[in-house]
Write a structure and sequence with these properties.
Helix content is 25%, strand content 25%. By secondary structure, the chain is α+β, with helices and mostly antiparallel strands. Helix 2 (73-84) runs parallel beside helix 3. The longest helix has 14 residues, at 114-127. The chain is globular. The two termini are 27 Å apart. The structure holds tetrahydrodeoxyuridine (THU). The site of tetrahydrodeoxyuridine (THU) has 15 residues, from strand 2 and helix 2.
Amino acid sequence: MKERLITLQLTERRHQELDTPDSELVAAAQAATDGSYAPYSRFHVGAAIRLDDGTIVTGANQENAAFPSGICAERTAAYYAGAKYPDKKFQAIAIAAREGDSEEMTDYHISPCAACRQTLLEYEKLAGKGVRVLMVSRKSVLEAESVASLVPLAFTSF
Ligand code: THU
């Protein structure tokens, strides 16, 4: 028998410790929550993806009365970026959320669901290097250096 340990390295920064590009990406994710259509969960999520030429593409969750038809903010942004800029590579994604009528971001970090991680992983593969994931809360930003680090033992090919 052999045991294997998989570790996850995260970096936590206060908002004022972010550099300018990351600060702009986080602000874009926060602003994108305004585009959320979430009448069922009232959980308003925004995502912002920075491409390799500095372009920022945003998305927000879009719900539907037939619940599984809805889609997360991260995939809205990723699929839009993929469709509109097929030749550009993803560099980083920031994710933020507000609850109900609150104007404030959540006091816990918003991390992508497993389906979004799987989707982002494929764009990371296309990019050829780590896509940084910035998970935003009101107080700080938690960074994973790559999507792959958030998907141990990922399914990547068949
Ligand atoms: N949601 C996202 O958009 N991204 C996440 O990372 C987690 C969940 C959305 C899906 C649904 O519209 C609402 O948040 C509640 O789950």
